[in-house]
Each structure stands twice: as C-alpha cells, then as structure tokens.
Design a protein that fits this description.
Length: 243
C-alpha cells in the first residue's frame, strides 16, 4: 500500500536472509521498546473474539514489540497486544508451525517508510515487511512436517508450501496503515494487524502475491485462516483489488 485509502496492493516486500543479518533493522526496537501498552491507555472495549487454543504452542514463542514510543496509547492497548500474541500463536499452529519464534514489531509510517526504502527501494509506507531469519534446509523437512500435521486438515497442507515446522521471523507491522484500513473497512484495528501478520507468515511458508492469480490465492488463505480461529474474513471485507 502506497497511500492512504488506496486499495490493497500486491506490492508487499518479503526480506529473506538465511544468515540472520536481516534482523538488524528491527533489533534496535526490541531492547528499549515496551512490550505492552502504556498504563494510561483508555480501557479496551469488550472483545467478542473467541478464546484461542494455544495449548500445543510450548515450543513456539510469539512476542509483540511496541517499536515506536509515540504510538497513540488509545490504539496500542494491553488488549491489543494480548490479542495479537494469542491469535498469531493460534494461526501459526493451524499453519503447521510447531516451534521457533515470531516477533511482531508495531511501528508507524515514518519507521515503515525508512525500512521500505532501505530494503525495497520504495519511499512509501506499506502494511507489513517480513524478515525471515530461519530459512535453511533444516527447517524444510517433509518427513517431520508430515508427522507433525498428520491429524490436521487440508488447509494446513495448502498453507505450508515449504513444509516448515520451525520458524524464526521478525515482522514489521504498520499501525498507521492498519488504522486507516480498519476505519475505511469498518472492522477492528487488531484484526487488520492480525491480517498483516498472517500475510508475513505466509511469505515465509512459500507464498507470494506478485501476480493476480497468486494474489487472490494468498489472500483467500488469509481469510480461511482467520475463520479457523473464529474471526470473520478481513481481507475480503470491502472492495479490494490487485492494482
């Protein structure tokens, strides 16, 4: 996404670096950033989102990092942070991911433009950047994947093209872009951010959205995964195209 109130585009950017050096742009955020909302944040509205089942996630760690001090406290609440942590965990399990870590960094337009320019050469904001830190043959094991997902449905097989059960990934999620899209499409900010996280994870599992067919297929999977954890489709909510 390049400007506010534009349709969702295919111009996402996934940064894959097997030696782990891609973590540098986001690493500085984790040291000093708060992992929960400010104490003076407005009380969250009651959530109708179902309780997520993360009982099998002992080897998977999901961390939400508040990457910019100036993010509005009424947007970044404890409820938002907890929702994203639990929902990302639940979705990852449906993807067949059994272990590793997912770090979701909530940043603003200014920080996203800087990262987008540095890694993709585009001087604009966007919704999500994906830094896959764990790409190796050890993480792509068809025998392990088959055993780990033997009791799961066909969706898992369709989602996890690389048959990975272990993942190490940093996600940069733009809360400014999410707020604009959520307002335009009349759904909660937390669900828009979750959509971005799912999009980033799908990139790690072998999906891309750089042609119309793959664009539609990838975003159908996003909404199917949301529905698996009890959330209505988000990408399909409202008029969207691949221009």
């Amino acid at each position: 996404m390049q400007t506010q109130n534009t349709p969702r585009s295919t111009q996402s950017c996934s940064i894959v670096n097997a030696d782990g050096s891609a973590s540098a742009p986001l690493a500085h955020q984790a040291g000093d950033a708060e992992s929960s909302a400010n104490a003076d944040a407005e009380p969250p509205e009651p959530s109708s989102t179902p309780t997520f089942d993360s009982s099998n996630s002992s080897d998977l760690t999901v961390e939400i990092i508040i990457g910019v001090d100036e993010l509005p406290s009424h947007l970044v609440t404890d409820e938002l942070v907890g929702f994203l942590r639990d929902a990302i965990t639940a979705v990852a399990l449906h993807m067949g991911i059994q272990s590793g870590s997912v770090t979701a960094n909530l940043i603003d337009d200014e920080e996203m433009i800087e990262l987008h320019d540095h890694f993709c050469g585009l001087t604009s904001t966007t919704d999500v950047l994906t830094f896959d830190l764990s790409e190796s043959e050890d993480d792509w094991n068809s025998d392990v994947f088959a055993a780990a997902t033997a009791t799961q449905e066909e969706l898992t097989q369709a989602v996890n093209l690389h048959q990975r059960t272990h993942i190490e990934v940093d996600l940069a999620l733009c809360i400014d872009e999410a707020a604009r899209q959520a307002e335009t499409r009349h759904h909660p900010l937390k669900e828009e951010l979750l959509l971005y996280a799912i999009h980033g994870l799908l990139h790690c599992l072998g999906h891309d959205d750089h042609d119309p067919e793959n664009f539609q297929a990838m975003h159908r999977l996003e909404d199917q995964l949301l529905q698996k954890i009890g959330i209505a489709p988000v990408f399909g909510n409202g008029s969207r195209d691949d221009e």
